[in-house]
Structure formats: structure tokens, C-alpha cells
């Protein structure tokens, strides 16, 4: 048995809808280890988010085995084993940034005297120090997403689940946040699962890229990144980066041959 942080073995997940049965995931197996940065990439509807939600115990596989930190996903959720960052920042407009980030800590019953230190620490990690008294509507989209990441980091879970957090942002902001996320990952040694539609983003960020097919979602390829840990944005112009990108692209193309 591997000592993986997240282990999926032959996961199948089916939704019953008014139009009939939808097979979202089929025979999905993957091992994710401590400190990995794993991107899941595939066409819309391929089950990337469904797999992330299954890891988070927000969806229940029909069969197969799924464990998080050696526990069932439900046990891991109850033990606060992960932070979750959604596509939209999901900040409460009536709470300032400090109070948005402190919300999970309040819910979990942290000592009120400890909360300011925790919030200050994560604000510094996402480079939002000085914005704690601002309200979400006073921040740009990129800053709101950084606040959302800070909220997910506030209780210091080992695992960060990120569902296409930068998808709605323009390319310049996205590039900047990609750089910031890599720095944050290196400084915290979190295990990150990241859903994206962007090939350059997946290749730039990841230690491991998981390529998925159209529904039913299957894993077509798992690419261990050969790129160095230090990754300036300019690395995207190198032959090594382009070679990995081409392998991802070919995997996505071949996936469409499934019937």
C-alpha cells in the first residue's frame, strides 16, 4: 500500500438526472503524495470538478476506494484535512476581508485571541496585508481570489483543493496569481489539487499533470513534470515546457476518440 496523501482506486461515479443516468467518472485511479502540486485538465464535463468534490466528500462515488490522509473523505472533512477554493471567490459582501478570512476559524471555535495572528499570517502569504478592513467590492477580482485562498489556508490544513480559481480572470492577472501560488506552495509545502482548462497553467504550476477524457471521465495520462522547481514565467518559452504542453494536448486529443 502506498503512503499517498490522497488515494483513488477504480472510482466510478454516476449521477441520476431527469434525462437519465450520467456516468461522470469511470475507473479513476490516482495516488497523490505529500507536497505534490497536481493539476487535473480536460474538456468541460469530463469530471475534473466531480473528482475534486469526491475528494472533499461533497460527492459520493458509487464504488471504488477513496482515501484522504488515510481516512474516508467524510472523516477527512470532519477533521478539517483540506481547504477548498471555489471558482468564484464566494466572499460575504457584508464582512470585511479580515472577517471573511476569520469565518472558518470562528465556526471551528478557535480562541478569539488567536484569530488575528492566523489572519495576519495568511494575509501576508497572499500579499494582502493592509487590506483587512476593505470589503470584497472594494477589491479587484484577483485580490478577491487571493482573499478566498487566504480563507482556505486560515486553519492550516495540509491539503488545498482548488477548482479553477483563476478561470474568470484576465491573462495578466492570471499569470501574476500563478507566480504567487507557486511561491505560496513552496513556502507552505501544502499538497495542492488544482482543476484547470488551461494547458499553460497546468504545465507551469504542476509537479504532476492528470489528463482526463470527455465523459465518462477517465484518466488518459499522468505526466510527471520534468521542469525545475524554480519557474519564472519565461520558462513557458523553453523547449522543455513546450514538449510537456504538446504531450498534454495530444492526450486531450486522443481522449476525444472514446465512444
The geometry reads as globular
User: Distance between termini?
Assistant: 33 Å
The CATH topology annotation of one domain reads as: Rossmann fold
CATH class of one domain: Alpha Beta
Task: Name the CATH superfamily classification of one domain.
Answer: P-loop containing nucleotide triphosphate hydrolases
Q: Which residues form runs of ≥5 with pLDDT under 50?
A: none
Overall average residue pLDDT: 91
What is the topology, as strand order, of the major beta sheet?
5-6-7-3-8-9
Helicity level: 25-40%
Sheet of most strands: 6 strands, mixed
Specify the structural class: alpha/beta
Strand percentage lies at: 15-25%
Number of strands: 9
Verbal overview:
The protein has 259 residues and is of the alpha/beta class. It has a domain at 6-81 and 157-255: 3-Layer(aba) Sandwich (Rossmann fold). It has 8 helices and 9 strands. It has helices at residues 48-55, 73-78, 97-107, 115-125, 141-153, 171-188, 199-205, 239-255, and strands at residues 6-17, 20-32, 37-41, 63-68, 82-85, 159-163, 191-196, 208-212, 219-224. A 6-stranded mixed β-sheet has the order 5-6-7-3-8-9, with helices on both faces. Strands 2-1-4 form a 3-stranded antiparallel β-sheet. Helix 6 (171-188) links the parallel strand 6 and strand 7 (191-196). Helix 3 packs across helix 4 and helix 4 (115-125) crosses helix 5. The model has no long low-confidence stretch (mean pLDDT 91).
Amino acid at each position: 500500500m502506498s503512503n499517498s496523501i490522497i488515494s483513488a482506486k477504480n472510482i466510478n461515479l454516476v449521477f441520476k438526472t431527469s434525462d437519465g443516468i450520467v456516468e461522470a467518472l469511470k475507473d479513476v485511479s490516482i495516488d497523490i503524495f505529500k507536497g505534490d502540486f497536481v493539476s487535473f485538465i480536460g474538456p468541460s464535463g469530463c469530471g475534473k470538478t466531480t473528482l475534486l468534490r469526491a475528494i472533499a466528500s461533497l460527492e459520493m462515488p458509487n464504488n471504488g476506494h477513496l482515501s484522504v490522509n488515510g481516512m474516508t473523505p467524510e472523516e477527512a472533512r470532519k477533521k478539517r484535512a483540506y481547504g477548498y477554493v471555489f471558482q468564484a471567490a464566494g466572499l460575504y459582501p457584508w464582512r470585511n476581508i479580515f472577517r471573511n478570512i476569520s469565518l472558518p476559524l470562528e465556526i471551528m471555535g478557535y480562541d478569539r485571541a488567536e484569530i488575528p495572528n492566523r489572519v495576519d499570517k495568511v494575509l501576508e502569504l497572499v500579499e494582502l496585508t493592509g487590506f483587512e478592513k476593505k470589503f470584497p467590492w472594494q477589491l479587484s477580482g484577483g485580490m478577491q481570489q487571493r482573499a478566498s485562498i487566504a480563507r482556505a489556508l486560515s486553519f492550516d490544513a495540509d491539503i488545498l483543493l482548488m477548482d479553477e480559481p483563476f478561470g474568470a480572470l484576465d491573462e495578466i492577472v492570471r499569470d501574476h496569481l500563478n507566480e504567487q501560488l507557486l511561491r505560496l506552495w513552496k513556502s507552505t509545502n501544502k499538497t495542492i489539487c488544482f482543476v484547470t482548462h488551461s494547458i499553460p497553467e497546468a504545465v507551469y504550476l504542476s509537479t504532476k499533470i492528470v489528463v482526463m477524457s470527455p465523459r465518462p471521465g477517465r484518466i488518459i495520462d499522468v505526466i510527471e513534470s520534468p521542469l525545475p522547481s524554480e519557474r519564472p514565467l519565461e520558462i513557458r518559452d523553453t523547449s522543455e515546457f513546450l514538449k510537456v504542453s504538446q504531450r498534454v494536448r495530444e492526450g486531450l486529443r486522443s481522449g476525444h476518440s472514446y465512444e
